[in-house]
C-alpha cells in the first residue's frame, strides 16, 4: 500500500543539490542572455543574482526537470522588470526606421547587428535572443515569457523585419 501511494505522487520538489546543479549548469547561458539584453556586465550580474535569489526562494516548488525553464523564465521576468524601471521602449510600429538605418560602408557586420538589436523593443529583443542565441523553440519561449506561441512568432518576425531594414542591403554593408 505504501508503494502505491508513493508511486502516485507525481510531484517532486527540487533539492538544494539539484538547485546548485541547475545554477552551475545554466549560469553562463543565463548571464549571456541577460547581458545581450542590457549590455552592461554589472547590471547583468545584478539581474542574474536576483534571478538566482528568486529561484532559491521557490526551489521547493520547482520540479527538478523544469529547473532550466524556471531559471530562464525567472531571468526573463526579472529582466523585464529591470528594463521597465530603466526606460520606456519605443514600439517598432511607432519608430521611424529612417532614423535608425544608415548607408555608410562598414565591414564589421557583428557591430552593426548589435546596434540594430539595441534598437528593438524589449519584448522583441528578448524573444529574438531566446530563439536565435539560446535556441529555444517557439513553445519554450512562450512558456518562459508567458506569451502565446503566435505572439512569440509575431515578435520574432517583426524583429527580423526591423533588422533587415536597419542593416540594409548587404552590398552597402560589405
Automatic annotation (TrEMBL):
Highest taxon above the source species: Bacteria
Gene3D superfamilies, per the entry: 1.10.1740.10, Winged helix-like DNA-binding domain superfamily/Winged helix DNA-binding domain
Pfam families xref list: Sigma70_r2, Sigma70_r4_2
Location of the RNA polymerase sigma factor 70 region 4 type domain: 111-163
GO annotation (BP), single: DNA-templated transcription initiation
Domain (RNA polymerase sigma-70 region): residue spans on this chain: 23-87
Keywords assigned by UniProt, alphabetized: DNA-binding, Sigma factor, Transcription, Transcription regulation
InterPro entries xref list: RNA_pol_sigma-70-like, RNA_pol_sigma-70_dom, RNA_pol_sigma70_r2, RNA_pol_sigma70_r4_t2, RNA_pol_sigma_r2, RNA_pol_sigma_r3/r4-like, WH-like_DNA-bd_sf
GO MF, one annotated term: DNA binding
Family recorded in the similarity comment: Belongs to the sigma-70 factor family. ECF subfamily.
Name of this chain's protein: RNA polymerase sigma-70 factor, ECF subfamily
Taxonomic source organism: Thermophagus xiamenensis
Upper taxonomic lineage: Bacteria, Pseudomonadati, Bacteroidota, Bacteroidia, Marinilabiliales
Amino acid at each position: 500500500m505504501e508503494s502505491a501511494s508513493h508511486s502516485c505522487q507525481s510531484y517532486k520538489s527540487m533539492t538544494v543539490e539539484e538547485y546548485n546543479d541547475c545554477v552551475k549548469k545554466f549560469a553562463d547561458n543565463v548571464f549571456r542572455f541577460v547581458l545581450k539584453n542590457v549590455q552592461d556586465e554589472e547590471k547583468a550580474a545584478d539581474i542574474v543574482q536576483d534571478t538566482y535569489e528568486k529561484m532559491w526562494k521557490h526551489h521547493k516548488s520547482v520540479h527538478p526537470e523544469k529547473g532550466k525553464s524556471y531559471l530562464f523564465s525567472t531571468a526573463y521576468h526579472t529582466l523585464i522588470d529591470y528594463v521597465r524601471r530603466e526606460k520606456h521602449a519605443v514600439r517598432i510600429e511607432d519608430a521611424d526606421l529612417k532614423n535608425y538605418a544608415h548607408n555608410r560602408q562598414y565591414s564589421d557586420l557583428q557591430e552593426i547587428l548589435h546596434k540594430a538589436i539595441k534598437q528593438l523593443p524589449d519584448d522583441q529583443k528578448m524573444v529574438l535572443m531566446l530563439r536565435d542565441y539560446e535556441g529555444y523553440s517557439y513553445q519554450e519561449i512562450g512558456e518562459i515569457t508567458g506569451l502565446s506561441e503566435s505572439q512569440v512568432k509575431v515578435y520574432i518576425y517583426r524583429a527580423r523585419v526591423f533588422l533587415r531594414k536597419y542593416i540594409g542591403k548587404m552590398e552597402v554593408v560589405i
